[in-house]
Specification:
Helix content: 40-55%
Number of domains: 1
Order of helices and strands: HEEHHHHEHEHH
Strand order of the largest sheet: 1-2
Strand content: 5-15%
Largest sheet: 2 strands, antiparallel
Distance between the termini: 16 Å
Radius of gyration: 18 Å
Shape: globular
Number of strands: 4
Structural class: mainly alpha
Length: 236
């Protein structure tokens, strides 16, 4: 599996600066402060109302998937990926491991794929992915452990997609806006083609979500996520 280089605890420790914000600061500054606070608190409440019952109901599935990952190939069940959170804070996003532990050695045999990965941070045909990993990725089951990230308030159920600290450079002037909010388990990107979208399109979708956020929009995205995941289109 690819090794992530050491990075500061927060990108705020480097050259990127952001404005401090509340945990669910998605609402427009043009709204009255009391209305902004109400919207933020409502988003946090919705997260907990969904996440706690989901964890209680899904633990048998999580156990089965963990066993499948363990039996499929040697290595840890959970992969902890260092990603960028709100206010530039770096945290570990939990995922079921979907790659062979010697992924770097495998990818080194494919220079063109390495170049594609460096450009888009995604590979459509990735030789590092295990048999079970392909199935988990197709239906986004590898991301279910991120339910615990939501419980820990590292993430929200709906929000911009998760990125690594290195990817923030690709957001350019939009980087500050991205880091004012928590990333989401699902979002506009996930229901708009997923990995089949270009990187620039992903950035635009993230910005559109932040700029037009509402509880109503979150609910619409949640309902669109279910068929998008079941179809398995654009996932790799």
């Amino acid at each position: 599996m690819m090794q992530t280089p050491a990075v500061p605890k927060s990108v705020l420790d480097t050259k990127v600066k952001v404005t401090q914000a509340n945990p669910h600061n998605y609402v427009s500054a043009s709204l009255p402060e009391t209305q902004q606070q109400t919207q933020r608190h409502l988003k946090a409440l919705v997260d907990y109302l969904i996440i706690i019952p989901s964890l209680l109901m899904m633990w048998p599935l999580l156990l089965v998937l963990a066993i499948a990952v363990k039996l499929d190939s040697p290595g840890p069940v959970i992969y902890r990926r260092r990603v960028l959170g709100k206010d530039g804070r770096i945290f570990h996003a939990f995922k079921f491991r979907t790659m062979y532990v010697n992924g770097d050695e495998i990818l080194a045999q494919y220079p063109k794929l390495r170049a594609e990965l460096n450009k888009n941070y995604k590979l459509k045909c990735d030789p590092r992915i295990t048999r079970v990993g392909n199935l988990l990725r197709k239906y986004s089951l590898d991301e279910l452990p991120q339910l615990f990230n939501i419980l820990l308030q590292d993430m929200s159920i709906v929000g911009p997609r998760i990125i690594t600290p290195e990817e923030i450079e690709k957001y350019g002037e939009h980087g500050q806006k991205l880091m004012r909010v928590m990333p989401g388990l699902t979002g506009l990107w996930q229901v708009s083609g997923r990995s089949d979208t270009s990187y620039n399109e992903r950035v635009k979708l993230d910005m559109r979500y932040i700029e037009t956020w509402s509880i109503r929009q979150d609910i619409k995205i949640l309902f669109k996520t279910i068929p998008a995941v079941l179809k398995g289109d654009g996932a790799y």
